[in-house]
Amino acid sequence: MAIRETALPGVLLLEPRVFRDERGFFVETFNAREIEGSGIPKDFVQDNHSRSSRGVLRGLHYQLHNPQGKLVHVARGSVFDVAVDIRVGSPTFGKWFGTELNDENLSSLWVPPGFAHGFFVLSETADVIYKCTRLFEASDDRGVAWNDPFIGITWPSMEPLVSAKDAGYHGLSEARADLPRYA
After folding, report:
1. Per annotation, catalytic residue among 61, 62, 117, 169
2. CATH no. for residue 155?
3. What percent of the chain clears pLDDT 70, i.e. is strictly above it?
4. For the chain, which has fewer Cβ within 10 Å, the N-terminal or C-terminal residue?
5. Under DSSP, is residue 177 helix (H, G, I), strand (E, B) or coil?
6. How does pLDDT run across 81-123, given as a tens digit for each residue?
7. Is 103 domain-assigned?
8. Is 169 annotated in the active site?
9. What is the mean predicted confidence (pLDDT) over 57-63?
10. In a domain, 54, yes or no
11. Using omega within 30 degrees of 0 as the cis cutoff, is the peptide bond preceding 60 cis?
């Protein structure tokens, strides 16, 4: 597995070896030995699976007091996956990294604690699976506006289908007092 750094320190792109033949393919999407020393933890406590239709945008989500690291993988379809540094005081505060994750490249994105995460579905449907370092706590659930001009994410569409909850999030400037601090 190749582990590549991105423009955001700590956010990593994992490119697995894919073994293809006439029957299909085989891939290891997670191997604790392969990630040794990369900064990605081995102890995940929750796996999530979401299915979404074309044009759906989910995010930008984070947990404030129990920040989750997420190892994101697409089992079916294609998404534009995004991580945003929301750590006040970080040299990359408000910066984002986006990449296409799909069932052809079979890559994964490591989104560390202290980063908001979201994705936009490019295919007819997409199954997104992600491993989390902490359990989901509904009372700790937070978000940042997907279309915050301060962040300036270049989404594939500016007319996505978003939930009422995601549509109600504020930008980073309004949420600043409620954001994690850079250590």
Report:
1. 61
2. 2.60.120.10
3. 99
4. C
5. helix
6. 999 999 999 999 999 999 999 999 999 999 999 999 999 999 9
7. yes
8. no
9. 96
10. yes
11. yes
In a domain, 112, yes or no: yes
pLDDT at res. 26: 92
Structural domain for 154, as ranges: 2-175
DSSP state, residue 138 = G
154 phi, psi to nearest 5 deg: -90, 85
Distance from C-alpha of 168 to C-alpha of 145, rounded to nearest angstrom: 7
Residue 66 near residue 134, CB atoms below 8 Å? yes
Residues paired with residue 8 on neighbouring β-strands, in sequence order? none
The pTM is what? 0.94
Decide if 130 is catalytic: yes
Q: Does 182 fall in a domain?
A: no
Mean pLDDT value across the chain? 95
141: number of Cβ within 10 Å:
13
pLDDT bin (cut points 50, 70, 90) of residue 176 is: confident
Q: Residues 73, 117, 130, 169: which is the catalytic one?
A: 130
Sole residue written with tokens 């129990």: 66
Residue 59, SS3 per DSSP: strand
Q: What was the pLDDT predicted at 183?
A: 66
